[in-house]
Amino acid sequence: MTMGSNVSLTDLSENVGSAIVSLGWSSPTGEGDADVSVLLLDGHGKVRNDADFYFYNNPVAADGSVQLLGKEPTGGGSEDRISFDLTAVPAEVERIVVAASRYEGARFGELDDLQVTLADAGGENLLRFVIEDAGQVSAIIFGELYRRGEEWKFRAVGQGYESGLAGLATDFGVDIEDDEAESGTEGTEEPAAGPADAPPEPTLAAVPAPRPPAEEDAAPKKRTTRPRTAKKKATPPRAPAKSLAENESWRQARLFPVSALKNDRDRETRATSVLLSVMAQVPRFGRRITAPFGAPSGRMETFTEVSLPHGDTPRRPDGVIRVERAGKLWTALVETKTNGNPLKSDQVQAYMDIAARRGYEAVITLSNDVALEGSPLVDVKIDRRRKHQVALWHLSWAEVAHQAQMLIRHEGVGNAARTWLLQDLLHYLQHDNSGCHGFQNMGAAWVPVRNGINDETLCQGDPRALEVVESWERLIRQVCLRLGGELGQKVLPAQRTRRGTDPGARRARLADQLCLDGRLQAELRVEGAPGLLTISADLRTARLRTSVEIPAPEQGYPLTWAKRLVRRLAEAPADLHVETLVEGETGGPRGTLERLRPEPADLLPKDGSTRITGFRLSLFKGMGSGRGSAESGFIRSVDDAVHRFHTSVVAHLDAPAPGRAAAKERAAV
What we know:
Helix content is 26%, strand content 24%. By secondary structure, it is α+β, with helices and mostly antiparallel strands. It has a seven-stranded antiparallel sheet. Helix 3 (264-281) packs antiparallel against helix 7 (416-430) and helix 6 runs antiparallel to helix 7 (416-430). The longest helix has 25 residues, at 463-487. It is globular, with a radius of gyration of 28 Å.
């Protein structure tokens, strides 16, 4: 669509009783972001009351007509999704404005790929509107839904506001309280005025209260809390407060203790109850966990130790999740395992059958293992003759910890009590006795394969090599989760297109390659990094190599490039290997950073006419031999190597220019 154009939704699809509107953008620096907001307007172009203003402090309408679903990562940036139930929109609402805003002096002209898309109830994209050259505005109306008779239409707007979200909301009749404009601070609250002899009542700043109706004979009432547009994000302080304990033997009382856990059954029961209770009490966290499984956004309740009939003996799934939206229920059964205990096919099959008979939507398995594409953890039979089909999903404890970490450290949940709940959940998951540590065993094939490589007796086609490759892929996915949780950025495994798209065939080729050269290798795409982070494990030499390739700048002189690179690596380890990449040759000059610091010119080829294409930075580390996650184990050594390389090397490098980086990534990955 173009700016100012409009279209009827019924002309695009028959399934438009509800719709998903997505606002997307990307940032050249990888750090820029914005927040969406929705306003319901009457025939006069104004909100009926302040409750018609939906944003991060008021994300869900009581009637289910509007639900802000939160941010989802995309290939180039992120997008905010909003669910509209158009059949539930009150009759007096004639227009729905969809906007976004930025804070602390940030402008939309600093973001790229601004666009809005609309999909019908079946998930099919119906329209797209791209905003070109947003300029120096801090709020933009992307588009609006409006009534024409009995149908809904969409108009592409693209109007900017220099006064930000506060100015936009005020124009549509919202009585806002903008902390950022008034005091320049965030997250401060004033108690509502009350009688002098009564203690102040607590106010719910997260949900703006509607204006009271005008009544001539109404008694005077306390001032209502106005919507606060200043961004409020409750996150724990970087430096924790000094403990009041006399010595280290004093242990803090925990909401979720682990001291009483004596066996695996206790661990499974406690872990399931802890997780499900926090999901219900912290809606944003619960939504993060269930959204990938197709759950709607709505009121969530969770249950444990539920008895369900199944043949002669009832079954007791570890947990049940129910979400209500617009009078409809979404239900998932949960089967949990802790420590290294595997999922049992007969158990999962029974829950699949129960869910199908009772009309439930999903079965979710939860364990320390990591599911791989094309390689299910359990084999179940699905009766295709049933009218109602049940989806089987898997979740790793590492992914649960990752989502909690992202909300606690980087995004916030807007409420100190909910932040505390998530912190205690994360403390529980990371405790040695919880059994919820994620993938922690390379499997029984690890030692025989490692010995076979050293003895040169491992042959191509050996199924044990394929087991090791699958375990390696699970480990890499977990490394991405942990690093992404620490950075607050997307970290994803990268797959070269030349290796094919079929996961089974790709793993078979990697297993054959492992038998030939004794190496396991993977590439990680870290948002904002100048290139792919490569991790290589050489089982013959028992060494790990972490590296990144930096493309040469498009302008300037090679000596300037070399000097600038060495300056950027002032805090990097002295044993960092730096190699110059040259065109048409296998490699150029190389050396350790310790040797190159006084003489950066040693990075330049002796033949001044040779074109430099980039630089490769590498760190080497001894590889753990054990198959587990102990301090001397292989899993711990890979985790430590990636963490050390990113914090000491990659974090100090400049992000690439967006155009060039995108072109290089598309060509390679």
